[in-house]
């Protein structure tokens, strides 16, 4: 068993050179935009939830190699320095006092550019895995700060579970709860620009904001009707206007689920159901549509090892 901060041996065993992790996707159960910051970002407040929909990230370390090689089974995912997992690997290799090579294989299951945090999840798994493989003495807090530099969602993807998120999404308060619902994800086949959505956001157009404290209380009591009643995302005021088909899918999900909300800036729509059987029946009713569909359960962590 590797010890935290132990020196990295020149010839580790093959078992110590490779690790495969699940990188769980992220949804928001509610989302409010508080203010625009001087740096151009926006402060938000909402509740984030990990889900069992996950990419698989396999990491290999070559003590005789150098540089980063990334492969992905999805043609739309970049495999160079523009990829967040590649950037995460670079951050940790720069902390090493010797050269090493890293290989990253991404098996994508989370739709890209869908408001589900797939790229951030891959970066989080890369940080966790390479910290272990390279035996770097980095605290969880420092790893979260490194993740924030990669993207606003990376700290949550490192922590996972259920949390109140504030700031740009990096200030997290864990919510101790056992989610008693199933999730249905519907992702229309279209691209939504997060930057465009935030740029066009107008607080004056928002007529309903979520009660984060109210939803937190409902989650702690496992009261699904209360959770459903607070499923509000203020960015819907922009995305629905720019992409009316997303609004149509949201209405369809509302007809099927206990509660529905757009995830992030879209286009994914999330529905909550009392149990997995009802979520599966709802998904079956949508199978002929040209959309990505997944149903499953919330996850208690953001990154997990594949045994």
Summarize the model shown.
The protein is of the alpha+beta class and 307 residues long. It has helices at 14-17, 84-93, 118-133, 140-150, 154-159, 194-200, 212-220, 224-229, 236-242, 244-256, 276-284; strands at residues 18-36, 42-62, 67-72, 101-107, 162-166, 171-174, 182-188, 259-262, 269-273, 291-296, 303-305.
Please explain how this structure is put together.
Helices cover 32% and strands 28% of the residues. By secondary structure, the protein is an alpha+beta fold. It has 2 domains: 161 residues, Ribosomal Protein S5, domain 2 (2-Layer Sandwich); 115 residues, GHMP kinase, C-terminal domain (Alpha-Beta Plaits), CATH 3.30.70.890. The strands form 2 sheets. Strands 1, 2, 3, 4, 5, 6 and 11 form a 7-stranded mixed sheet that branches. Helix 2 runs parallel beside helix 3 and helix 9 crosses helix 10. The longest helix is centred in the middle third of the chain and has 16 residues. 45% of the residues are buried. The N terminus is likely disordered.
